[in-house]
Amino acid sequence: xxxxxxxxxxxxxxxxxxxxxxxxxxxxxxxxxxxxxxxxxxxxxxxxxxxxxxxxxxxxxxxxxxxxxxxxxxxxxxxxxxxxxxxxxxxxxxxxxxxxxxxxxxxxxxxxxxxxxxxxxxxxxxxxxxxxxxxxxxxxxxxxxxxxxxxxxxxxxxxxxxxxxxxxxxxxxxxxxxxxxxxxxxxxxxxxxxxxxxxxxxxxxxxxxxxxxxxxxxxxxxxxxxxxxxxxxxxxxxxxxxxxxxxxxxxxxxxxxxxxxxxxxxxxxxxxxxxxxxxxxxxxxxxxxxxxxxxxxxxxxxxxxxxxxxxxxxxxxxxxxxxxxxxxxxxxxxxxxxxxxxxxxxxxxxxxxxxxxxxxxxxxxxxxxxxxxxxxxxxxxxxxxxxxxxxxxxxxxxxxxxxxxxxxxxxxxxxxxx
Length: 418
Hints:
The chain has a six-stranded antiparallel sheet. A five-stranded parallel sheet has the order 2-1-3-4-5, sandwiched between helices. It is built from eleven helices and 18 strands. Helices cover about 40% and strands about 25% of the residues. About 35% of the residues are buried.
């Protein structure tokens, strides 16, 4: 039997440690005959130096030695920083179970009783080789796993960096978060559950005394939903009225509002015919007359807007309707709300009313109405920020499961000459 056969190819270097030169020579002769590369040490101290310089695959050490005993040497051997595991066999005349347990606890893998039988020695070496092979295969697999995880971490870091930039770009779609129109104030809120989300809010001018407002919630979460919001932002553009489907150009070059229901129907046809996507979205589109306080709205599957009167009472308006992008040829309805001085209208996403509390119960419309009543004296952006704080307190967590968005219209009364 060669060293390759006995050691299974994983045991090549063997260190024999014994204070008896005769015992070392007997073991070394057998090991060399089987083709192993053998080193000898007459003490535990010398053996440790050799192990630091050139770690062996297999150590065979006598238990009883002057100075550093085999047991103490074994403990120090295990404390060495080594790339691969070294198999350790203690040579002893001890057969007491407590002594064997002591050796195993010190880090020994196996025992041989002196005098050593050659056949038994070969068998123990073969057993050690099987264990070392499995250990080294496991080490290699762990190395491959670590290498793969390192590559994945690099990719994740790169993706995370891209998503941070994507979040900045998406937030820039809502370039103006607050505006005072004199007769009314508009505040916008957009908070994604992740880096990017599927909610979008905005406002756009219609004329000297009218504005458009909208709240959108694209199905799903993440990058694809965010890309959809970017596309929709162009269709309701405040800076490029030619692209805004809620507006139409007259013969004299002016832009006037389309009825909100008609504009949503156009969006639905566009999504169904031109955009290859599985996403759909909910929407509330509003046409606000700043002189009269008259608001024309169309609701497409979006949560019912909350109308809070000046006396603090809250009602939820609208009839629901179908989401956009689900049914070709879908029709949409519109309704009117008359606002007076001190009234306010909140167009919010389902992330608000479907926020889950610590008991699992959802906030729902009743909970939102309670918050609005509590915040009756809070105005503008401060109200929206306080709403986020209230939701965090309700959920017991500042990280929400869904995107949170809202458009707040606060009517103060006509600021235009009669």
